[in-house]
Amino acid sequence: MKKKIPIIIEAVDDKGYWGRVNFEDNLIVDFSKTIEGLKKKMTKLLLDFHKLPSAKFAFEIQYDISGLFDDKKYLNASAVADRAGISRLMLRQYRIGNKFPTKEKLQNLANAIYEIGEELKSLKIAIRE
């Protein structure tokens, strides 16, 4: 079975994606216009620095708070904060990197986002025929 290696998306802007991989006490950081491009760059860096061939691992895309709301603009940060029981001001501080959430706060945010996803998956849209 392939080892799963997280690529954590830290920031997204109109130029692309910043991501990081923590592997064997090394922090690897890079940038690309697309997530696929970032995966390719990280694959090359893991091979160059750790002699780890791509056949032995698979990337798992994860987001930190700022990267999530930068990339998924359709997520309303205020609504997510309300649902997670976190103040809107505090979530704003997390988003811009002035403060960092505890593990418990991150779990609350994740749960709120997962709940929203489940609600969206269960929606039925009426389409006129």
Structure, briefly:
The protein is of the alpha+beta class and 129 residues long. Helix content is 47%, strand content 26%. The relative contact order is 0.13.
Low-confidence stretches: none
Residues in helices, as a percent range? 40-55%
**DSSP helix count?**
5
Largest sheet: 4 strands, mixed
Q: What's the helix-strand series?
A: EEEHEHHHH
Strand order of the largest sheet: 3-2-1-4
Q: What structural category arises from helix and sheet content? A: alpha+beta
- Using DSSP, what is the number of strands? 4
Q: Between the first and last Cα atoms, what is the distance in angstroms?
A: 47 Å
Overall 3D geometry?
globular
Mean pLDDT: 95
Write down the Rg.
Answer: 17 Å
- Share of β-strand residues: 25-35%
Outline the structure in words.
With 129 residues, this protein is of the alpha+beta class. It contains 5 helices and 4 strands, in the order E-E-E-H-E-H-H-H-H. The chain has a 4-stranded mixed sheet with strand order 3-2-1-4. Strand 1 and strand 2 form a beta hairpin. The termini are far apart. The mean pLDDT is 95.
List keywords for this structure.
alpha+beta, 129 residues, globular, four-stranded mixed β-sheet
Could you give the topology of this structure?
Elements: E1 3-13, E2 16-23, E3 26-32, H1 35-50, E4 57-63, H2 65-71, H3 77-84, H4 88-96, H5 103-122
Parallel strand pairs: 1-4
Antiparallel strand pairs: 1-2, 2-3
Helix pairs in contact: 3-5
